Structure formats: C-alpha cells, structure tokens
Recover the amino acids of this structure.
C-alpha cells in the first residue's frame, strides 16, 4: 500500500478546490439523471464541464480507465464503464467522479435515484449515506482506521445490509490513491492512527444482499454476485485541528433535487472560527 502523505493547509485548500469541482459536476449531473438518458451522455457532459473549469478528468486514463465517470447502475458496485444503455424509472446509478487540478485530485461519489425508486432501495441509500457521515465523525485525532471501519460496518449490518470487503477508501492528494487504506469494516482500536494533515476519501459500498462480488469481462465493472442493488457514497475529508472537515459537498446535488439537508453542517469549515 502506498504511503501516507500529510498535507499542509495550503495543499488542503488545493484538494478542496478539486473536490468542489467534483461536487459541482455531480450537481450538474443531478439535473440530467432521469429515465431515458444514458451513462455515456452523462460522461460526455461531465468531461466537458470539468475541462470548461480548467481541470482534467481524474479517472480518464488512470490505470487506463476509459472514461471520466465510473457509472454503476443497480447491481453494479463500482467502476462501471459508461455505455449507451438507457436508464429506466426505478433504477439507481452510482456516479463516481474524479478531478485533477493544480496538481491535486478530488474524488467523490453519489448514488442517484432514476425517477421514483422502491422503498427497499430508498432505505439502502439512506443507511449507506448515514454510514458515510458516521464514518466521517470517527475521522478525528486519537482514533484509528479500525474505529472508522467498525462504525460504518456496525451501522450497515445492524440495518440488515452487507459491507463490500474488496474495495476500500483511501488517502488522496497529489495521487488519486494514497495511504492509508480506509476499509468500511474493521475492529475498534486497530490500524493506523489518524493525525492532523491527513486527507482521505471515505466511501462505503453497501449491498442489499450478499457482500459477495464478481467482476465483468470488461476487466473493470464490479457487480454484486446475487445481482441485488448496491449503493456507494463518497466524500473527501481533511483532518484539521483534530477534527474532520469536509472538502466535498453534496449541496449542489441537493439544490438540483430540491432536497433540504443539514447533514454536512457539523463538518463544515465555518466550525473552525469558533475553535
Ligand atoms: Mg471515487
Ligand atoms: Mg475513492
């Protein structure tokens, strides 16, 4: 595993800029995601938007990935390749997007409903997103990687879902993937200690059915073995003054979808002013 590289405050601000551009890209896509569109159309729009903002797609060409977005509908967990399949009412699609700007990466993801979705899948998305914020709360000085992983795993398993093991969160900075690995499962009190200057991507991948996965012949797409739905939400978070601070935001998505939420409030920059 690649090593942990601590960041200066200036470097964290540059990562924030890249993360925010991903947030805005996802917000732009939120307006486009509806029955009848294809993930390839979304991919084109995302690439154009990122380049118009003087940045480069972070995934395109990374490990030879062919597109700007990882677009993973329904049973696909992550790393889905955009294609011409038409999204239908009741589908969900996980969109993971990366940006490279000023020498730093941003990387975050959201699972979008396509039109009206079933209550069963709504509940999966809700629990997965809750577990993301529970994980973020654990990213503080004194805690360890295992504390964060345990908190996500515990929340999802007690709600009856399963946690993907093969894919994990990661440090992020000048490289898309740096240390430490951030699994969404773990044992409390174990693993690397969190310290100020760490910047990580926390990204629970949670399945409705079994945690077992399979990989498609394209060499990229990871899907659930039982073909039941999977959800994926990802934020970039910095450890500053001993506490987690969000660098990415879902606010642009919520604005597009007409959702009111204060879920990010405890992790906003403004908190620093009082500390
Ligand atoms: Mg990602
Ligand atoms: Mg990631």
């Amino acid at each position: 595993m690649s090593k942990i590289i601590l960041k200066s405050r200036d470097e964290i601000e540059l990562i924030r800029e890249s993360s925010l551009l991903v947030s805005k890209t996802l917000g732009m896509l939120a307006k486009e995601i509806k029955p009848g569109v294809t993930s390839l159309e979304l991919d084109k729009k995302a690439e154009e938007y990122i380049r118009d903002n003087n940045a480069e797609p972070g995934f395109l060409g990374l490990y030879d990935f062919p597109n700007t977005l990882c677009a993973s509908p329904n049973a696909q967990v992550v790393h889905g390749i955009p294609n011409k399949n038409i999204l239908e009412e009741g589908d969900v699609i996980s969109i993971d997007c990366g940006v490279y700007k000023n020498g730093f990466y941003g990387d975050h993801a959201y699972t979008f409903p396509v039109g009206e979705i079933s209550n069963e899948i709504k509940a999966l998305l809700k629990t997965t997103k809750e577990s993301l914020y529970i994980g973020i709360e654990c990213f503080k000085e004194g805690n360890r990687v295992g504390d964060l992983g345990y908190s996500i795993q515990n929340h999802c398993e007690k709600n009856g879902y399963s946690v993907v093991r093969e894919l994990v969160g990661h440090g992020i900075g000048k490289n898309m993937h740096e240390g430490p690995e951030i699994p969404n499962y773990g044992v409390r009190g174990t693993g690397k200690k969190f310290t100020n200057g760490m910047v990580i991507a926390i990204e629970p991948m949670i399945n409705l059915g079994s945690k077992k996965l399979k990989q498609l012949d394209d060499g990229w797409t990871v899907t659930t073995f039982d073909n039941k739905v999977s959800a994926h939400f990802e934020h970039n978070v910095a450890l500053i003054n001993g506490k987690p601070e969000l660098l990415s935001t879902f606010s642009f998505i919520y604005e597009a979808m007409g959702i009111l939420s204060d879920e990010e409030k405890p992790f906003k920059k403004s908190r620093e002013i009082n500390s």
Summary: Residues 212 and 225 are 5 Å apart (CA to CA). Confidence is low (pLDDT under 50) at residues 271-275.
